Amino acid sequence: MAMMLLAAGRSLRSILHPRLAGAAAAFSSAPSAASAAAAEAERTIREGPRNDWSRPEIQAVYDSPLLDLLFHGAQVHRHVHRFREVQQCTLLSIKTGGCSEDCSYCPQSSRYDTGLKAQKLMNKDAVLEAAKKAKEAGSTRFCMGAAWRETIGRKTNFNQILEYVKEIRGMGMEVCCTLGMIEKQQAEELKKAGLTAYNHNLDTSREYYPNIITTRSYDDRLQTLQHVREAGISICSGGIIGLGEAEEDRVGLLHTLATLPAHPESVPINALVAVKGTPLGDQKPVEIWEMIRMIATARIVMPKAMVRLSAGRVRFSMPEQALCFLAGANSIFAGEKLLTTANNDFDADQAMFKILGLIPKAPSFGDEEAPAPADTERSEQAASM
Ligand code: SAM
Ligand code: DTB
Ligand code: SF4
User: Fold this and answer.
1) For residue range 136-165, what is the model confidence (pLDDT) as tens digits?
2) Residue 186: strand, helix, or coil
3) Is residue 12 part of a domain?
4) Domain encompassing residue 118
5) pTM (whole model) above 0.85
6) Long-range interactions of 368-377: CB distance < 8 A, separation 24+
7) Distance from residue 193's CA to the centre of ligand 2 (Å)
8) What is the CATH number of the domain that holds 315?
9) Of 48, 68, 168, 349, which residue is the least packed, with the fewest Cβ within 10 Å?
10) Is 103 known as a binding-site position?
11) What is its EC class (predicted)?
């Protein structure tokens, strides 16, 4: 067969104008080897998630030609998820600023002058009011953030937060917290209170991490993730791109996440929001192509995770965000504020969902196993697109 095609190519060239013959030659010698993105996506679809990725394997997926990577991210996404569904999460900073840590990207560190006023823990009424509003606006997950290194030694505040978790879970929403490092016992108490997920990002690769944070280690972060996992709470862990890291560091981050004993249920991909006054205040903005590469690679190597198009989304146009959803993102932060910085306009997000045919994802409480989309559902979705 190959010989016949080769012969056909040769005889075609012999009767064509030289310029067309050149084009035909280029066509017949087009690279035929499948990219790593294609090969790994097909393997993922055939064999399911794996935790034994080598770093070069993930690097090869990441380095695949961009449109091929995007296409195969989309392929895995459609195979594993209901591709029209996008989870909407609302963030609330329940304890803002004055943080002891030196995370170079963070406007909430007390070491940098960003003009942010430190505040005490928000009271119950204000938090529940914000959760109610988020629910009414269509969010199904409410995530409370505190500018703390850790929760140890904050018994009163921690008990108050347990109360908030119980109440918000009682409102029928998924609840997430990001409170810094936690101990095993605190993770268990959060679980008992009804916490769905705990967010604790690795931020970047192990090698690049000391350039960004010196006040706690990569292993400290992994330890918190282990406490969360052992307590039976979903893990939300990802990172930030645009910190000045090399592409190898982005791959390093994904490699650490994809080789955890179980993949995180959520992987937020943040593009640095460069805040004046922080050491990274003058970083150049992340380009959409970098975001797509990161999202599609995450989708292929951690197929079941919710991949969240997180901070930095405000800078991307609707068509740019559409490419991110196509590549495999299926979660966003909704609402006009992240923790302390601006997020996308609510009406603009509503319009985007309508135009792109996206539908909000219903909450899931983990007691029921999320079914993989049946073929019929996938084709129904395809038909209605
Ligand atoms: N203090 C807790 C901690 O560090 O785990 C919780 C809050 S902290 C603000 C949560 C995450 O937000 C960080 O790990 C980081 O990934 C992300 N983040 C903070 N500032 C950011 C920025 N300027 N741009 C993008 N992501 C940012
Ligand atoms: C995550 O990965 N991104 C969110 C959430 N988890 C807590 C935080 C983004 C913060 C962006 C800067 C700010 O608004 O302060
Ligand atoms: Fe503090 Fe978290 Fe900001 Fe680091 S990222 S300075 S720990 S609030």
Assistant:
1) 999 999 999 999 999 988 999 999 999 999
2) helix
3) no
4) 44-362+374-380
5) yes
6) 372/80, 373/80, 373/81, 373/82, 373/83, 377/82
7) 23
8) 3.20.20.70
9) 48
10) yes
11) transferase
